[in-house]
Design a protein that fits this description.
With about 400 residues, the chain is an alpha/beta fold. It has 14 helices and 16 strands. Helix 13 links the parallel strand 13 and strand 14.
């Protein structure tokens, strides 16, 4: 019995962030997990990946793992006993704490594998993958794993097409999951703007030469105008998503796309609308955080008007309607981002994210960090900021019931 364990794992002497076990009758199919980022993360001890050969858990001369289906029909079915012994081995192998893995079984009838599921699984300490072949695995193995071994068992499909087995699906799932494990990908920032990460496809990318084959790089990308670049890239993401994956663009996004959102510097004429929007948004925050003691709620119309002289405020307009805003100010080498708000009926569609990107992109030279406050109980805000790379500061926030988040400028 030979478990292909992580090369160099022993030397890394650090507790891996994640253990992954894979059981298959074709263990060599998983050899790509030795390569590239995943191979490096295994060498660095960030990941503990073990591949097991199901046939090692058979006892007959032919190492039989399959048999004919009860009730007749085409093909063969994988026998339960080898799977039971393989799972026992995985649970027993170097597992002094008696922990239990989340068992993932790829199957064409499973729940769709998505970036959201990948993000969830990336937070789990131990995943075990069972690669089926033939017509699939005897149904009693799933019941045994859930009921007898007490494992969480998920049947997951890579997509609406038919493969010959689970190995290809496991390769894709493991890569999509472990690249989200902190430290596996060097530049975590690059994870933020990826397709599917926030429901939008990626913007087009270019590198040298400036002109190639008579084709030029879009002028805006050579402008050095970070705000314009951020705006162009977001418009590209929206228009590409609308063209190629309208299913990702739920109705409101589509309407935003249709009418397009423009982010411009706030002017005194914007103040009345801006004040109303801020009141609407911070009443929401007050309810979420059970307090009315929020500076934004105490700002009068004159306070908002005055803030235009002391800070850089941007407003987002869609079809003439003021639908969002953000305020920025400098504190030494920190760019403080505040009063980020989106009209309640348009929240959750990426506009807040776009305003945040705009606020960051308009930061002057010399800025090293971005910081902001939000309600300790403002779940959606916290999720959006963390996805954008912000991290909670454990120092007490200047406002009761609030928290401060910071991100290093790259
Ligand atoms: C696991 C056996 C083959 C499937 C008879 C062909 C995932 N998106 C996906 N498509 N197919 C699979 C998948 C296929 C598998 C196994 C996953 C184990 N097969 C079977 C049923 C029809 N043959 C998959 N994830």
């Amino acid at each position: 019995m030979t478990d292909a364990v992580t090369p160099g794992a022993a030397s890394a002497a650090r507790r891996p962030c994640m253990r992954v076990d894979v059981v298959s009758i074709f263990p060599d199919y998983l050899a790509p997990l030795d390569l590239s980022l995943i191979g490096k993360a295994r060498e660095d001890g960030l990941l503990d990946v073990r591949v097991h050969d199901l046939r090692d858990f058979t006892h007959d001369r032919h190492r039989t793992v399959d048999d004919t289906p009860y009730g007749g029909g085409a093909g063969m079915v994988m026998k339960p006993q080898p799977w039971s012994e393989a799972l026992d081995h995985v649970l027993a192998h170097e597992n002094p704490s008696g922990a239990k893995p989340h068992l993932i079984v790829p199957g064409p009838g499973g729940q769709p594998f998505t970036q959201a599921l990948a993000r969830e699984l990336a937070h789990e300490p131990w995943l075990a993958f069972a690669c089926g072949r033939y017509e699939g695995i005897d149904e009693r193995v799933y019941e045994h794993a859930r009921e007898d071994l007490g494992l969480e068992v998920s049947v997951v499909s890579l997509g609406d097409y038919v493969l010959n087995g689970g190995e290809v699906a496991v390769l894709a799932m493991v890569e999509a999951v472990v690249r989200l494990v902190p430290g596996v990908i060097g530049n975590a920032e690059s994870l933020v703007e990826e397709s599917h990460e926030d429901g939008l496809l990626e913007y087009p990318i270019y590198t040298k030469p400036r002109t190639w084959n008579g084709r030029d790089v879009p002028e805006v990308l050579l402008s050095g105008n970070h705000a314009a670049i951020a705006s162009w890239r977001h418009e590209q993401r929206l228009s590409r998503t609308a063209a190629r994956r309208p299913d990702l663009l739920h109705a409101s996004h589509a309407s935003l796309t249709v009418t397009g959102v423009e982010i411009v510097a706030a002017r005194p004429a914007d103040v009345p609308e801006l004040h109303v929007l801020m009141r609407a948004c911070w009443v929401q925050e007050a309810v979420a955080n059970d307090t009315l003691d929020i500076p934004a709620l105490r700002e009068s119309l004159d306070d908002v008007r005055a803030s235009l002289d002391t800070t850089q405020t941007w407003v987002a307009r869609s079809a003439g309607r003021l639908v969002g805003a953000v305020r920025t100010s400098r504190r030494d080498d920190d760019w403080f981002i505040g009063r980020l708000c989106v009209a309640p009926d348009l929240q959750g569609r990426g506009l807040g994210r776009r305003l945040l990107e705009h606020a960051e992109a308009t930061a002057p030279d010399g800025i090293r960090t971005f910081s902001l406050n939000t309600g300790a109980k403002s779940g959606d805000n916290l999720r959006m900021y963390k996805k954008a790379g912000y991290r909670l500061v454990d120092a007490r926030a200047p406002i009761p019931g609030a928290v401060t988040l910071v991100k290093r400028r790259r």
